[in-house]
Amino acid sequence: MFGKYQRIMRPGLNFKIPFLEQIYKKISIQNRSVELEFQAITVDQANVYFKSMLLYAVQNADEETIKRVAFKFISDKDLMQSLVRTVEGSIRAFVASKRQAEILTLRREIVEFVKEQIDTALEDWGYHLLDLQINDITFDQAIIESMSRVVASNNLKAAAENEGQALLITKTKAAEAEGNAIKIAAEAERQAAQLRGQGVALFREEVARGMSQAASEMKQANLDTNVILFSMWVEAIKNFAEYGKGNVIFLDGGSDGMERTLKQIMAMQQMDNKK
């Protein structure tokens, strides 16, 4: 009334004295939002661009609160300007102490820092902050391209390391398989050689047993046992001719030669018997 604050009209039916009372401002207690776009600079001189959304509302419907909302600023435009500058200043102060590589991982910390900074100022104005969302954080195109190259090089490095490890594992497994195959082959060869030796030993044992039995029977029949040696000599010549790879066999056909051969065969038989 007459330019002086008089009262607050609440929602519902109200009466105004004509010509004496004027409505100064209508205050809405509903939630309000504003979108912000601004730039900040990191400690390593990188430009960071923010897009954010601020959600705020009148603190309550008390008379003192409504008076602060109505009279702190001349217009809503001044309120918006102060609010935007306060938020921008808080974010720029936080970003100025961080490096460019850290910003993308500090979205939550930025929001919490700004809320702590502007809550007191908003309460003094009659408002309170409901939410602050940072929707987008971008950098200069040169920084974005360099970050892409860093990510690509890291991926290539990781791929190369994985390929190297895979190749190492493959070669290791191949070497282990080859070593196991050699061990198995060696073991098989050892067993085969052992079996061959046992076969040869059994063969010699059977030959010696047969010759001994034949010699005993010839003695009982009053026959010369040298016939057995002669038969072995003839069989040896036959085997030479049948299985030998050469084209010529040199033998001493004289009586002395056969006698020497028979003596050598007898000596070999005696050595086998001693074993």
Detailed description of the structure:
By secondary structure, the protein is an alpha+beta fold. Among the domains are: 32-139, Band 7 domain (Tetrahydropterin Synthase, Chain A, 2-Layer Sandwich); 224-275. The chain contains 7 helices and 3 strands. The protein has a 3-stranded antiparallel β-sheet. Helix 2 (76-95) packs antiparallel against helix 4 and helix 6 packs across helix 7 (255-274). It is rod-shaped. The relative contact order is 0.07.
* Portion in strands: 5-15%
What are the segments in which pLDDT stays under 50 over at least 5 consecutive residues? none
Q: Give, in spatial order, the strands making up the sheet with the most strands.
A: 1-2-3
- Structure classification: alpha+beta
Principal-axes geometry comes out as rod-shaped
Helix content: 55-70%
CATH topology tier name of the domain at 32-139 = Tetrahydropterin Synthase, Chain A
On the 0-100 scale, what is the average pLDDT?
77
The CATH superfamily of the domain at 32-139 bears the name Band 7 domain
Q: Whole-number radius of gyration?
A: 55 Å
Name the CATH architecture of the domain at 32-139: 2-Layer Sandwich
Could you spell the SSE succession in H and E letters? EEHHHHEHHH
